[in-house]
Amino acid sequence: MLCRRRLQRLRSCNKVVVFVVVALFVGVFLAYRTLNSQDARASPRSSLPSMGKRKPRYQAAPQRHKLFNPETRLKVMTHLRQQLNSGLKVSGVKEVLTLLYPATWKSASDPDGVAIVLKDKMLELNLHSPMSCKEINAFQIQGSIGSSNRKYIERLEDPQNSYSSDDGDRDRERKRRKLLAIKSQANDVQTKIACMKQIYNADFCGPMGNYLLMREIFLLRFLQHPNLISLLGYCLRGDHISMDLRQKGLVMVMEAGSPLTMGTVASLQWSLRVKLALDVAYLMEYLQSSPLGNVALPRVQLKDFVLVEHKTLKLTDLDEAELSEKACYRSSECVLQGSDVGVECQIGHCKGLNQKINLRVIGTNVLDPLLRQAPPEDRTDVGDLLDRIHHLDISPSDLVNYLESLVKKYPETEEDEDSEGYHRLKEKVNRRFEDRLSIKDDIQREEEDEDEDEEDEEDEGINDNNIAGRGKPGAAHGEEENPQPDNYLRLDSSNFPGQYDYPCTDSRVLWGCVMTFDTLTAAMEHCNSDSSCKSFVVFSSTPEHESKMTVVFKSKNSGSPHSNLGTTLFVKKKAFPSRDEQPLVNKGVKENEIAADVKLKVKDSEAVKVDPWAKVKEMQDCIKRSRAIQEDALRSREKRLMAHMGLKGKQEKDWQRAVRIRSIISYSNVKPLSGQGARGGSVLVYYNTSSAGHTVTRAKFMVEEGPTQNHVGFALVYHIDRLLGLYHTPPAVEGFMPSAVVDKFASNQTWQSTFGSLVHQDGTLRGLFVAPTPKVIKRSELVLEPLTEIVSEVKVFDRTQKVQLEYVLLWWLGHIGKPSDLHRGFKGHLIHVDADQGFQEPAVNYDGYFRHCQFPNVVYKMLMCFRCHQGNANKICYLGQEVVRRLTTAGLKLSDLHIQDVGEQDYPGLINGAASSTLQIVDKCIQDFGRETVLY
């Protein structure tokens, strides 16, 4: 009986257990179905699968588009939601990104096939082109806007959007059309070199640059934002490169705009600059949480932004955008290079590092120029904002909030004033895209006028064919609005940036003489009436057409102008230096071709015009190419020097920038200069490091004017070093101590006696900041020995010998006065910490060290940019001039370098002479033993 009862109870328990288990399974199943159905909805809060080891968010980031056409900004989020609702697949986007971002160039597919695959993928993702390839082919290319070593950018006219202007002036009655720009692939040498470092196959690596343009097409089509340039159409039909539109493989059509330049920014009203800065902040906020995650723009420049309709600033280049954040194992790997700012390592990635990169790059290159020189009422607050940007301790959201509040401070009436400045820019762009036929007419008129004037001017030193006053129809026939002055030489696309500035009354800035004029004639009249004015720069390629122009007046008319698109340099012709008066004449080398090119070459009694600055531009282009090719080698040398100077992990440019912007709080170790007539000395200054992101704690400041030491001599040696890529001189940068700091320290008697006589009228103390010498830099032995004759057999140098040969080369080029047994360095790397003794020994000769027939390849290639021509290719003619130009551009004066029996004009000759002697030996070695044996 008892057993039966127990059995019944057991059966009852089993039924309960079975019921509970079944109910549990049913509950789990229903919950799963509920969650699955919710995920299937197009909810803006839904989370998508991982892609590339991170979780991209395809929903639109919450944007604060409160100002300036909020309806347009609302369309951004609506468009992204529509993309999701229309069936945009995560896997499809992941496939596209995997296709366009191969792990290595070695594993990359043929770009010709990738372009076809990308076209199909974008159609599947509903990212089709608004224009067909047939419609794009119907356009006519009207001319080049610009080009680089990666892309061609050309102008188009849309025949569907035209209208005729009727202002009563037949000369101005021209058909205007909607302005478009087309971007296509060029021969990308940089990407080819990067590819060949992984796989040495020129044919394979040649077309790899197409990947960058394909990335840009996809990103501009996928990422929709008011501050990204509008992609109006694209064509993907292979990797063919051609100047014929119908034969181009990759093509993208965009809206046209006016590129931002420093001159453009300087001409804008403050309120408009703030609005443009807000546009940039909106874009930064969007990139922080874009549909593709946190996007970084590590190499964006001011010129990458353009002004388009409705005063909107837009970014044009996305080919180098980085979509994934740095992989990591620990947070110590997530420190921004060159600073102490870092982020946390989360789920294998440095979360938020791309945001810091954008803040540093965009803040320095774009926001700083836009927000510089604020009006007095905003100067303190804007200065604090820029300081936070430089210290990388502000988020894009906070930046947007601040700039929105700043914009609201200005009443609507000021927009009318700003609009005038903007429309001037707009008209400037329109003129750049005008009918080519009218431009041809203008050029033809100029050529006819030049032919008439040529006979009369043949005997003069400079032909008036180069004189200002070109480009306007009818002006050559005496129209007053287009002057033809006889005392000015016109140099198109040229500038003296950072050179020869002087203060004047009514200037818009403190650093120079900058004014606004209505006509070119008014600018010339002002220069004629100002005894300090010897030349001036107009920020326009066609100043004759401008109704308002920004003009920067200069105090000199000699030197080597920079090539600078969008500017025009006017030099007073009657004061233009002759060959004998050229201050940079190389007395050590008779051939000074820069000065010779100013004259006309006469052959068969016919005057042949030569561009006086063609050699300068050619040299500058050669320097850029050489540095691009040797980029990795130069970066390695810089890294070694910074580590040995106690600045491991920092970049020199970041150190230089930190030295200039950081606040000096104290000093120590004042060392007055000794010697008869010596003034100044050196001092160790300490910086405020309380805020985040500091890259410098102290620096050595020197301002020396003595018989054996001089800070200008140090600067000359430094510029030779960096120009040739040697990196055997400590990091240095020209700068000044503010008047407030000088006044604070002047109470010390030692300080006052050392530097008091060198303080400028504005209260500042100008000199050179140098990285302090660390304790590990000690006296070292120079193991390399000079030879009297070239070796009969080359013995390959070891690492120490190579490093010391480069040290000796700089020792000679800089004519540094030091005992031959006094050298300092670390681990065989000798460093010229005593470069302030530069050019104290003009008579030294160290060419015996180069008879070993070993020479650094990076230096040899750079020297090729400075070779003489006209039968003197084994000599150097331009190196000294370029070094002096860099010195004067930085604000230092050769006149402050006092060396007995050496004049200001002799320094280029000393540099060129030593370099020529070295090059002759190296060329002889290459002739005897071959390049591969001699160059390392």
From TrEMBL:
PROSITE patterns, A to Z: PROTEIN_KINASE_DOM
Signal peptide region: none
GO biological process: skeletal system development
Residue span of region Disordered: 41-61, 440-492
Gene3D superfamilies: Transferase(Phosphotransferase) domain 1
Annotated ranges, domain Protein kinase: 139-426
Key words of the record: Membrane, Transmembrane, Transmembrane helix
Protein name: Protein kinase domain-containing protein
Species this protein is from: Littorina saxatilis
